[in-house]
Write a structure and sequence with these properties.
By secondary structure, this protein is α/β, with parallel strands linked by helices. The protein is 25% helix and 30% strand. Helix 1 runs parallel beside helix 8. The protein binds flavin-adenine dinucleotide.
């Protein structure tokens, strides 16, 4: 790609905001346009199921930039506008009422909640993705109300914690044997299960939802074993799907996300993708991964800006995410991958919920996390980065994590 004069970013989320910021920080003085379908300027979604939902974070604190940042940095922000098509040959995107030409195009269209056919959105049935969704759900979280949640993933559990804090009765309905089992495995998922039950959440696992009926006084969730759960409000949190429609229609490679290389370039040289929508080749993992995390939207947004300007490098940061529920926070680094793990090393006080955990596959640490051990994240990251650490010493729990990482066996060159 020769040095562009005009960059169009589709999608007004975090990846879009950080890409625009990156372009300006790298000295790009051409035209930058962000086209976003939502009413609001780019904002961060993590608070929508945590502080903003709890009422502890101010509305203004969720935005990626102050309102005047866009004017100050000469970034054109076109809100409430959906890009309906991309013409790769003409280098233009279509918006209602016209076209926008580009030299470089960044697709940062994010993801949308996966909808459960049995539970269409309604007055008493909600999904959570936008600031408006969070505000609607917050209005439902009142003392003594019954809240049912389908899905014991991150969003479902964070809303469960907020609902309990608001004084609601909460039932979580999860298909697997444990909440978060697919992401964390049984050992650490059990810690989250007990965290929620100890805070009074009624946790139903191994259940399958057959149907949802919304009536004037509430909503009834019918399960396949014949039982049913009545609630004043139902939240469905069963994952997200990448917003790939534009890319698909334009003929770009799409496979569970817009397929990009490590520089975030799609199958067309003028077009990149970043954030939740991108399935990028990860040079260290040597496979394509799609990462639905805050840190990835920031990092890839900035990395895409550098690729556009010809100063890019392969994006090789390991996936990182965090969650906060009740008085517990975790940070997680790494990627267990499709082959799973064969061992977990737990260090610290697991019942007291202050510990680190490491997932091991074929003798190498592939992922790690801490719970409420806030000084540990650098050490966790160092161990995951190193991979081939002394597992016996890791398990013994005495050697500092940084020391274990420093003495790891390096792969031969
Ligand atoms: C409730 C919630 C809590 C979360 N909590 C955490 C957390 O604790 N930790 C963590 O690491 N991650 C968390 N995440 C994930 C994190 O927020 C996402 O990874 C991040 O928002 C991805 O940013 P993005 O810019 O790629 O996509 P998005 O934030 O999805 O933004 C994409 C934007 O593009 C717009 N768009 C789509 N198509 C078009 C089009 N054709 N034209 C114009 N605009 C379009 C969309 O409307 C949207 O505004 C959470 C997500 C949610 C929903």
């Amino acid at each position: 790609m020769s040095q562009p004069r005009s960059v169009v970013v589709v999608g007004g989320g975090l990846a879009a905001a950080r890409a625009a910021e990156g372009l300006r920080e790298e000295g790009f003085d051409g035209r930058v346009v962000i086209v976003g379908a939502e009413d609001e300027r780019p904002y961060e979604r993590p608070p929508l199921s945590k502080g903003y939902l709890l009422g502890t974070d101010e509305r203004e604190s969720v935005f990626a930039h102050p309102a005047d940042w866009y004017v100050q940095h000469d970034v054109e922000l076109v809100l409430r506008t959906r890009v309906t098509s991309v013409d790769l040959a003409a280098r233009a995107v279509t918006v209602p009422g016209g076209e926008l030409a580009y030299d470089a195009l960044l697709l940062a269209t994010g993801a949308s909640p996966r909808h459960l056919p049995a539970a269409p959105p309604g007055r008493r049935v909600g999904y959570l993705r936008t600031i408006g969704d969070s505000e609607r759900i917050k209005a439902e979280l009142r003392p003594d109300r019954n809240v049912a949640i389908i899905g014991g993933g991150w969003v479902g559990l964070e809303v469960a914690a907020a609902a309990r804090s608001a004084g609601c009765q909460v039932v979580v309905l999860e298909a697997a044997d444990r909440p978060l089992q697919r992401v964390l495995g049984a050992e650490v998922a059990d810690v989250f299960a007990s965290l929620h039950t100890s805070h009074g959440v009624d946790l139903w696992t191994g259940v399958s939802v057959q149907g949802v009926k919304e009536g004037p006084d509430g909503v009834t969730v019918r399960l396949e074993d014949g039982t049913s759960v009545r609630a004043d409000f139902l939240l469905v949190g069963v994952g997200a799907r990448p917003n790939t429609e534009l890319a698909e229609a334009a003929g770009l490679d799409v496979d569970n996300g817009v397929v990009v290389d490590a520089y975030l370039r799609t199958s067309h040289p003028d077009v990149l993708a970043a954030g939740d929508v991108a399935r990028a080749h990860h040079p260290r993992l040597d496979r394509h991964i799609r990462v639905e995390h805050w840190d990835n939207a920031i990092g890839q947004g900035r990395a895409a800006a550098r690729t556009i300007l010809g100063t890019g490098a392969p994006y090789d940061r390991l996936p990182y995410f965090f969650t906060d529920q009740y008085d517990v926070g975790i940070e997680y680094v790494g990627d267990v991958g499709p082959d799973g793990y064969d061992d977990v090393v737990l260090r610290g006080d697991v019942p007291g919920r202050v510990f680190t955990a490491f997932w091991v596959r074929r003798g190498r640490v592939v992922a790690g996390m801490h719970m409420n051990d806030w000084d540990a994240i650098d050490g966790v990251r160092a161990v995951v980065d190193a991979g081939a650490v002394d597992l016996r010493a890791l398990r013994e729990g005495r050697a500092p994590l940084e020391e274990l990482a420093a003495t790891a066996v390096r792969p031969s060159p």
